[in-house]
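Running co-folding for pyridoxal-5'-phosphate.
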Amino acid sequence: MHRPFDTAAQSQRFSQPSIGAAGPAFGAAFSAGIGAVNGSALRDMLRMAQVPGMVNFGGGLPAPDLFPMDRIAQASARALEQYGWRAVQYGTTEGFLPLREWLAAYTCPGMGGVTPEHIQIMTGGQQSLDLIAKIFIDPGDTVLLETPTYMGAVQSFTPYRPNFAAVPTDEHGIDMDALEALLRDLAMQGRTPKFIYTIPNFQNPTGRTLSLERRERLLDLTTQYGVFVVEDDPYGQLRFSGDDLPSLAELMLRRTGGNPDRSHVVYCSSFSKTLAPGLRDAWVMAARPITDKLVLAKQGADMHTPTLNQMIVTELLPLLPEQVDKLRHSYAARARHMLAALDRELPPGVSRTTPEGGMFLWLTLPEQVSTTAMLPRAVERRVAYMIGECFHALGGGHNTMRLCFSTAGPEDIDRGITALAQTIREELAGEVDTRS
Ligand SMILES: Cc1ncc(COP(=O)(O)O)c(C=O)c1O
């Protein structure tokens, strides 16, 4: 008969190493998944931004001077008054129904097939990425990343132990010939990637936008090879030049006759960049089998997104068009100012992207410069940027950087870009190969 706690000898045989005076062996205790996650460059950037006089183009924060503070205060008061205790009681995992109803109509306008069942409210777009990874990735699965990509996505996916494969991009987004070649190669090895992660609009970090022709081709290829598409679109509303393009989700819905349950696109967006990031309100629109699994994953993560915050956002929805307009105008002016300063100041050999919206642009320096090695010298001159290497999960990008134009005023932009250009010129004049 099996007796689990039998003799002293048995318990000794199965005993764990004890915790000594120095405390637990932390290193050995953590999972391989979290062990694979790199330190957050974002945290380092936030620390750097504290230095007085620093012009920080590194941090990717929305402009705090544009948060609709009065309207948020009124919306909070109204939500509490209207819903009383319901505003602070547990809510449903799927999210606040009036908000999901609104989002079902808003996410792909004119597509009647989208219902609240296809909308899952999330605690920030970051949670969407984590829970998508949780429901899709088994250790060893292949996940395709357009490269460079949002480092927060890599951070969310990594603990689930995928094998990443990098898909190259150019000024119009993902290089579709390269993607096709990669999918063909993987198919020959018997590997079907679980999904491709892409940010088609005003990409973080490059500011680039995927062309319409390439959107259609991405859907053709992923349909042909059976690969889900995770479309991350937190910046799509923030277009300040050029024409709006339909999302991958919308294009796919057109192909399925408006039936979201036949779509392989998982669409993610967020109110962080249009209202305020601290509200932590975002959503996923996807086929029912996917939202059903996301509900399970979210129950185990945080049960639901804070009810009051969802109610506040719902109260703010009528303000959204006006607020988005304000952001577009302001970010357009800041981007224009930064682009003009860059064109005036940068030495030859440095190229930049021209964003049509969003918050970011991307610089590529001559090959011999490492932006990582150069950063302390830029910081001495009181300017900071985000190093390009941290957007390359599989290495590369040593001579690139991301600049964020959403928060700095014109004087700071001028001062920061002058300091940055001086640092780059010095780096080039020194002709030191700073890669190593
Ligand atoms: C591409 C992308 N996805 C997701 C997020 C996460 O945003 P949030 O969690 O605030 O919605 C960000 C934030 O910067 C982002 O740039």
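Result summary
The chain has two domains: 41-68+322-430, 69-318.
The mean pLDDT is 93.
Job closed.
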